Amino acid sequence: MTGPVAFVKEHWRLLLLVVFITGSMVSLFVPGGVMGGNDYVETQDSGATNLEYGLDLEGGTRISAPVTGMTAEDIDAGAVRDNGSVDQARLTEIERTLYDETGLETGNVRVSVDDDGNAHAELFTENVSEEEFAAALAEAGVEVDPDEDIREGVTAETRQQMVDTIQSRINAAGLSGGNVYESARLGGGYYIVTEAPDMGADELRELLAERGIVEVQAYYPTGDGNHTNETVLSGDDIAKVDPPEINQETGETVVPVQVDSNAAPEFQSRLNELGFTDPNVGVQQCGLRGDGESINFDHEGERYCLLTVIDGEVVDAHSMGPRLANSMSAGSWENDPTFQMGAQNAQQGQALSVNLQSGSLPAPLDFGEAQTYSLSPALAEQFKLYSLVIGALAVITVSGVVFLRYRNPRVAAPMIVTAMSEVFILLGFAALIRMPLDLSHVAGFIAVVGTGVDDLVIIADEVMEQGDVSSRRVFESRFRKAFWVIGAAAATTIIAMSPLAVLSLGDLRGFAIITILGVLVGVLITRPAYGDILQRLLTDK
Amino acid sequence: MGYFDVPDRSYTRYSNRQLAAVPLAVLAVALLVLTGTFLMTGAPVPLGMDFAGGSELTIQTTSSQEEIANAFDEEPESIQSVSAPDSQNQYVVQFTSTDLESLSQQAEQNLEQDGDADIVQLESTVSGSFGERTQRTALLGVAVAFVGMSVITFLLFRTFVPSIAIVLSAFSDLVIPLAFMTVADISLSLGTVAALLMLIGYSVDSDILLNNHILRRQGDFYESTHRAMRTGITMTVTSMAAMLVMGVAAGLFGVKLLSSIGIVLFVGLAADLMNTYMLNLSLLRWYKFEGIRS
């Protein structure tokens, strides 16, 4: 047999193996890998390979927690008109009624319409019963059955917003490689899973526990000697946020923001009504002092302040500036609706800016049902070493047993090499798709060596039984027989592991995925190649 | 190549009943252990933190084991010292409480720091309700895997007795390590569940091999059996050796996930040797010599 076609035809099994091993080498060792890009990974990983490591082998924290809340789904709110447009005023009206009836704080009620035109009402609390929720909705003219229509959990939109918000908070904290996703749990409901490689448990918990609901409140005298707070602007109304800066005139930390053009006119007219923009009434009339965190409200006389409020806590009080007051009272401000939100110091300004930028967490996480896992980088480094040692020990053991059994290096040596190349191809694949490796993957790799060698034993025994392999034809027929068993065994292993690959059982997913991939790589690539090698060695061609 | 050779014709000396009696008796004992434990504790196997909820800290400290026990308001469930090559003074401490924040605070306040290493190296907590859900999910996973394996087996062999023989020995392969875990007080964790699922896949291999050799090949029953055994026992022993090494080494290093996978697989594969070559074989022999004609 000569010519390239015949050569390929004869050795396609070996060639395939060589192609895959070369591919793995490229994806493992060529800097930047095949996929390239994603430079943030390169900066944190100075290792010799392109492999990425998960929490177990890199250190960091993972917190999984469900979202607190309940939802009345697909309510008949009368807020969607026949032509599909949404009656925003009606939604706000229902929201107001729910706030009044339940007495919940700002940010814990939400009535929304999803992309399919279905309206949902959500309460983000544990302190209201389903009956109370239904009663409050009835008050707003929406009839629901507390048992049928109200369920635990929140809507998909809310969860997605949680994920986005947390992700942008982690990014804002300057952390690379953070990962946020939702994970379905059995029997309904979802966990929000947050992974941050460079954070301790306390730090991450703090970041997740803060709602970050920003409001601007007007603090003004009511005329009877008392003062009142009124929310005049919420975080959602702010369209654009700049990083905190020092105001040149006053020397204070401020966060420049631009108000959404829909909210600007109302903000302007309300402040005009309350007298904030009247030079004889409200301008420059605050003068409350803070201690760096909160504000002291002990004062005499009438004051006009714009308060910065985060999660219900007043963090700063500012006067209305004369220039802003001028453009507002003239009515021209709404054409360029920017102003500066106050903060007491740079740190607070940073927090305010981050909260505004990432938006508030639409609902709180339920830490009572959480799972936390946190590992120091030092211990992770040890785990990496142990994984290598354990893997090496397993390979040595397997090699020892195989050599003892066959006493023939020509059969045993390629067996070990083939099993190792299976792991190598898998590692290359992991580097290619940037799969972060954890301890469970390491267990998977060891299991792959185990099953791999098993199947090679089947091939070797089958091919060598009944004396020598005299011809290629005999070899092929025996090899095919062996392959029936291997295929059957592979099918059962894949079936047995597939529930793990789909179900959200944390650590085990990686194990299952690696095992299944290993079986596939084995059956399709490495084991046929081993047959080829064995044939050449035994038939002495 | 005499290492794993088994006495060739010894099977002829035992009747099918005798052969099947041993694995069935072991299976019965295992089921008894599991039922007994279930009646006494409410769970057939001791549930680990993943399923029952609780907290775990890995701490590095020069304080003694006793001082560690006294450092916490709540008495630890267990304290295990880690004996790894390049780390000393490391302990894995488990609690039933899930208040991770105060546990790690207590550790940092009451324990001696070892050089400049962090005292709390790993902290992990699972709330009770989280664990309960995991438990249900895991149970579903094992059930689906088992049913899937059974269906595949029936599809492959398309005859009742050989297929049911595989399913029965796979079932026994699962129950025996579970009973072993109860007796040896290894608690059920995500790692051990993975091992059990792996067993479903692994243990069936040797059964398929045996059935294939006996049913689909020509030749004498004992001749086929012998050949299947030579291959099958090599396979299982190789895997057992790898798993034992992994289980023991990982246990010493305190890498729990790997050690529990290793140990449970080792026991399960040992059970599989017995089930394949006694239970499965006796059923096959009955089928081949008597069942087929009826």
Automatic annotation (TrEMBL), chain A:
Entry's localization field: Cell membrane
Residue ranges constituting the Protein export membrane protein SecD/SecF C-terminal domain according to the UniProt record: 371-524
GO biological process: intracellular protein transmembrane transport; protein targeting
Topology within the bilayer: Multi-pass membrane protein
Methyltransferase recorded as keyword: no
Keywords assigned by UniProt, alphabetized: Cell membrane, Membrane, Protein transport, Translocation, Transmembrane, Transmembrane helix, Transport
InterPro entries: SecD/SecF_arch_bac, SecD_arc, SecD_SecF_C
GO CC annotation, single: plasma membrane
Residues passing through the membrane, by range: 12-34, 385-404, 411-433, 439-461, 482-502, 508-526
Role summary: Involved in protein export.
Family under the similarity heading: Belongs to the SecD/SecF family. SecD subfamily.
Assembly with partners or alone: Part of the protein translocation apparatus. Forms a complex with SecF.
Protein name as annotated: Protein-export membrane protein SecD
Gene: secD
